[in-house]
Amino acid sequence: MYFIDADRVRKVYAEGGRKHTVAIEELTLQVAENEFISIVGPSGCGKSTFLLLVAGLERVTDGRLLIEGQPVNGPDPLRSIVFQEYLLFPWKTVRGNIEFGLELKKIPKKKRRNISSEYIRLVGLTGFENRYPHELSGGMKQRVAIARALVNRPKVILLDEPFGSLDALTREGLQTELLRIWLEAKCTVIFVTHSISEAVYLSDKVAVMSKRPGRIKETVAIDLPRPRTRDVFISPEFREYERYLKEIVWEDL
Ligand SMILES: Nc1ncnc2c1ncn2[C@@H]1O[C@H](COP(=O)(O)OP(=O)(O)OP(=O)(O)O)[C@@H](O)[C@H]1O
Ligand SMILES: [Mg+2]
């Protein structure tokens, strides 16, 4: 049994009347527990849609989507999602944002504090607990969003171009941070990105989607040793993965 098992998944968005969009068709993908998988593919091919289906925020139209053998029937705190735009509560501090999910679960204040402090440390925000989102840089906001996603100890974390709006240096820093966080937090990651080199650097597997209606064209196992440092970017093996993946992606542009 696969941890996440998508079998010929189809997603049609109805938009009233006869108008509808087939976002995903015949999408088949398996993900193992604690695996880090990235999804790349042309704009509009259905990457975000797939994450929403796994999150349970959208319903599968046809096909089968199982997590630990169970069909996805709606959202679950064991699956959390981080979007490109930092969706933080502007009226809550860093700590308040991170503790939000714990408040919903009625976890008492003292325990909330301990848990949030742990995740604040994990994402490198110690000392910034009482700042508000408008007082943070883009990279820091995204760290808060990641901590907030991790605080319920999800088994699956879905990241939708989380570093897309950051400058190159901040992005590189956060990629390395994310690998460290993933190793420590031990969860399954599905990471959507437009950057093939980012996908190769981070992932155990990179799945390439076709243009809309999206399906998985090919899945490439990234056989580079871990822990990975940024030196890997200049290795011939890395370059070869990058070249090969670009070729597959470009067929659809
Ligand atoms: N709520 C919605 N209602 C109707 N159509 C939608 C909805 N959400 C997405 N779509 C359509 O479904 C298709 C896939 O969209 P999706 O956002 O999943 O693509 P994407 O691969 O994430 O694109 P990008 O790389 O630009 O983020 C697009 O044609 C989009 O217009
Ligand atoms: Mg998208």
TrEMBL record:
Origin superkingdom: Bacteria
Nucleotide-binding found in the keyword field: yes
Listed GO MF terms: ATP binding; ATP hydrolysis activity
Signal peptide start-end: none
Gene3D superfamilies: P-loop containing nucleotide triphosphate hydrolases (3.40.50.300)
CDD domains: ABC_NrtD_SsuB_transporters
Domain ABC transporter: residue ranges: 4-236
Keywords: ATP-binding, Nucleotide-binding, Transport
Pfam families: ABC_tran
InterPro entries, per the entry: AAA+_ATPase (IPR003593), ABC_transporter-like_ATP-bd (IPR003439), ABC_transporter-like_CS (IPR017871), ABC_transporter_ATP-bind (IPR050166), P-loop_NTPase (IPR027417)
Protein name: ABC transporter domain-containing protein
Taxonomic classification: Bacteria, Pseudomonadati, Thermodesulfobacteriota, Desulfobacteria, Desulfobacterales
